[in-house]
Write a structure and sequence with these properties.
The complex is a heterodimer of chains A (about 100) and B (about 425). Chain A has about 100 residues and is of the alpha+beta class. Chain A is built from 4 helices and 3 strands. In chain A, strands 1-3-2 form a 3-stranded antiparallel beta sheet. The longest helix of chain A has 28 residues. In chain A, strand 2 and strand 3 form a beta hairpin. The radius of gyration of chain A is 15 Å and the shape is globular. Helices cover about 50% and strands about 20% of the residues of chain B. Chain B has 12 helices and 13 strands. In chain B, the strands form 4 sheets. In chain B, strands 7-10-11-12-13 form a 5-stranded antiparallel beta sheet, sandwiched between helices. In chain B, strands 1-3-2 form a 3-stranded antiparallel beta sheet. Chain B has a 3-stranded antiparallel beta sheet with strand order 4-6-5. In chain B, a hairpin with a 2-residue loop joins strand 5 and strand 6. The two termini of chain B are about 60 Å apart. The chains are: A alpha+beta (about 100), B alpha+beta (about 425). The interface between A and B is medium-sized, with 16 and 18 residues.
Chain lengths: ~100, ~425
């Protein structure tokens, strides 16, 4: 059975949801992700907007504050559930592949 | 505040070239104010203090094709988000969103990725797809009109405005479709960079072809053969102009002015086409006096190569063949008779009549020189030793010389 669009989170999606565990606005999300990934993942406004729209329409995040042009978002319980599911999936993948992958290192 | 308008038919994937163009203009003291149009875009600039600005072009997918200026709440949210990063919103036009910054930005608005290309492809197909549909409709209309047109029964097509208009419709359709070709080329093979001068050249060609078409359509309202000559002039002027421009690899004002003047002059000539045509044909016909080698007092339709079906246009005034059919009668009290004066529109028809008369066995060689055709004010009359025949729509009549003298007097008085 094919997976739904947000069943598996992409890397930028995953980090965006992680960033929104604390209420953040667009630029703050980008800075946070840049920081924790040590500059590896750069979320640009064009792609971030598309992601935030998708998340919002799926009720995975919610707009908490509007201050002029600045909009702050926060993850919802549904979003937390999906993020946790993804985290577990990634962790399982790590564990399952560990015996073979460690040998490669 | 001074304003300036420029045309630049760019596509969204050519954003780098557009950014470069806008930056050049800003450095020259012209700030972009508005972008309007569909496939053919008009850029409006206002004067500003010359300065180095950085322009950033982005796109949105949720916009209205029919009402590109109407925006929804989502677009405002998108803009607000981009502005959080330090960009300043300038304008929008359909999917296009233009931002500006005074400094070089560390974080771009969008990354160049496969995802971005997919989204751009969707928007581009939506954009050019509509224009392709319009193009196909134009071609369909042109062809269907051509197939149903009455002019297909005509013997001579010269001066057939409807035909020119139908052909023009098909050409317009093809132009619409051809305007979309660069998008498909980009989808198949994406280049690293799209140079500005190529876009400018493309814009120039597209605008010129549309202008030519418009002139042709206008010209077609008067006379096809004349319109074709003028089309050749336009093409010649354009090719010379373009070759100069292409060599120079720049689009100087002078070249543009030359092109505009050339088009205006040609347009004006087109306008005066009818007048010129009239005077030219009038002098040609007036000076003609054809001596026939064959002839007969009564000439049926078949001898002219026309059957009943083909003569439909002849009966119509202002048709391809005839300028005028004047039905009249004599006011002479002694002798009453009716007559028709057929006013031949153009030389080809006149020649056709002559040819038809000479190729049929209507007269022996001994009688050569006895038949003459008098042409006066477009009226064609064939004379046979004092008996004249007028070419009328319905029949060929014989008139006595007295009757003809009367008719000639009337023609002279016209």
């Amino acid at each position: 059975m094919p997976r739904k669009q947000l069943d598996t989170l992409t890397e930028p999606m995953y980090y965006t949801l992680v960033a929104l565990l604390t209420p953040r606005c667009g630029i703050e999300i980008t800075e946070f992700v840049l920081d924790i990934t040590k500059g590896r993942v750069r979320l640009v406004p064009g792609t971030l907007y598309t992601m935030l729209s998708k998340f919002e329409s799926e009720k995975m995040i919610v707009e908490t504050q509007v201050d002029g042009r600045k909009r702050t978002y926060e993850i919802t319980d549904k979003g937390k559930g999906m993020l946790l599911e993804e985290y577990k999936r990634l962790k399982d993948m790590m564990e399952e592949g560990k015996p073979w992958m460690e040998a490669l290192l | 505040m001074k304003t300036k308008r420029k045309t630049l038919n760019f596509f969204l994937y050519e954003h780098q070239a557009l950014q470069e163009y806008l930056e050049n203009m800003a450095e020259e003291g012209w700030m972009i104010e508005r972008i309007s149009g569909g496939l053919m875009k008009i850029l409006t600039f206002v004067s500003c203090t010359p300065k180095k600005y950085y322009f950033h072009l982005d796109f949105i997918s949720n916009y209205s094709f029919w009402f590109p200026q109407v925006e929804n709440k989502e677009v405002f949210k998108y803009r607000a988000l981009v502005e959080e990063y330090g960009y300043t919103f300038i304008l929008n036009q359909g999917p296009l969103q233009l931002f500006m910054s005074e400094e070089k930005m560390d974080i771009p608005i969008r990354e160049q990725s496969e995802e971005t290309k997919k989204e751009l492809c969707k928007i581009s197909i939506k954009e050019v797809g509509m224009w392709m549909i319009f193009g196909i409709l134009w071609i369909f209309m042109g062809i269907s009109s051509f197939l149903n047109g009455k002019y297909q029964d005509a013997y001579v097509w010269t001066g057939n405005a409807t035909l020119v208009l139908d052909v023009s419709r098909c050409v317009l359709g093809l132009l619409y479709i051809s305007f979309s070709f660069p998008v498909f080329a980009w989808m198949i093979h994406e280049k690293k960079r799209y140079s500005l001068w190529r876009i400018q050249l493309r814009t120039y060609l597209q605008n010129l072809s549309l202008c030519c078409l418009i002139v042709l359509m206008l010209g077609g309202l008067f006379n096809l053969s004349f319109a074709l000559i003028l089309l050749y002039i336009i093409l010649a002027v354009s090719i010379i102009n373009m070759s100069i421009t292409y060599t120079a690899k720049r689009f100087d004002k002078t070249y543009k002015r030359i092109a505009i003047i050339a088009l205006l002059v040609v347009g004006m000539i087109m306008g005066g086409n009818k007048l010129i045509e009239k005077s030219v044909q009038s002098s040609m016909l007036n000076s003609s006096e054809y001596i026939l080698t064959e002839g007969k007092s009564v000439i049926p339709y078949d001898y002219l190569g026309w059957d009943e079906n083909q003569t439909v246009d002849i009966r119509t005034q202002n048709s391809e063949f005839l300028k005028e059919v004047d039905y009249s009668y004599s006011e002479n009290e002694d002798e009453y008779f009716s007559y028709q004066i057929v006013t031949v529109k153009n030389t080809p028809l006149h020649k056709l009549i002559m040819q038809s008369l000479t190729t049929k066995d209507l007269i022996s060689e001994k009688e050569i020189g006895k038949y003459k055709v008098y042409v006066q004010e477009y009226c064609v009359l064939v004379r046979n030793q004092g008996t004249y025949i007028s070419f009328s729509a319905d029949q060929y009549k014989e008139f006595s010389s007295l009757q003809l003298d009367y008719i000639f007097d009337q023609i002279d008085a016209m």
